[in-house]
Protein: Nitrite reductase
Amino acid sequence: MSEIEKKIKLAVNGGIGFGSKLNAKQLVFLAEYLGDQELELTTFQQLYIEAAENDVEFITKKFNEVGLSVYPVGNYVKSLRHCNFCKGEEQEGMPVAKEINRRIAGKPVPFTLRPAYAGCPIGCGEPLVNDIGVLKVKNGFDLYIGGNPKGAEARVGKLVKAQLQPDELYSLIDKILVVYIKHGKKRESFFKFLNRYGFDTLPEQVLITERL
Ligand code: SF4
Structure:
């Protein structure tokens, strides 16, 4: 008797760029891949598709060939939600957004974690209401944690540190994730983790280790 192949969800998008755009080649590729499948559009600039678990590596390679990025779905860091970089790539820090995404998207964490980025204080990528938020202000990057966009518990994130330079920013984000991965309970959201662990404790802890 043949085994039924296990299907899993994958998240797909066009990577970090000007807007969340897909070109005709990518759309045709997606349509051919989908066949009778439906495509689910999420609020986090991702498209969900289904794939046989054993084929994930092959599918990821094929999607990458047409410029589509593929991420795991579930208890992982999601791909970076971002603004449209309307004022230009360098001015709005697109290389920094790409590097943040490269470093953290797809990392296993206790519960799905949503990072977001905006290239100027107007904040179109909504970084202040996501788990980890980066806002470019003048020549630096302000790092926020613990925002929550949902329900009666909605709140704005707390500023960890303003006017960071890229290397300091990457290092702090890495350290925050290490603490969450180490101390977060299974399926405990980052928002709930911060309530339990200490909304002030975590920033203090990572900033102290940064100074050592
Ligand atoms: S946050 Fe600023 S740079 Fe980004 S899309 Fe909005 S206005 Fe443009």
Observations:
- Residues 81-211 form a domain with the Sulfite Reductase Hemoprotein; domain 1 fold (CATH 3.30.413.10).
- Helices lie at 24-34, 56-65, 94-104, 166-183, 190-197, 201-211.
- The chain has a mean pLDDT of 93.
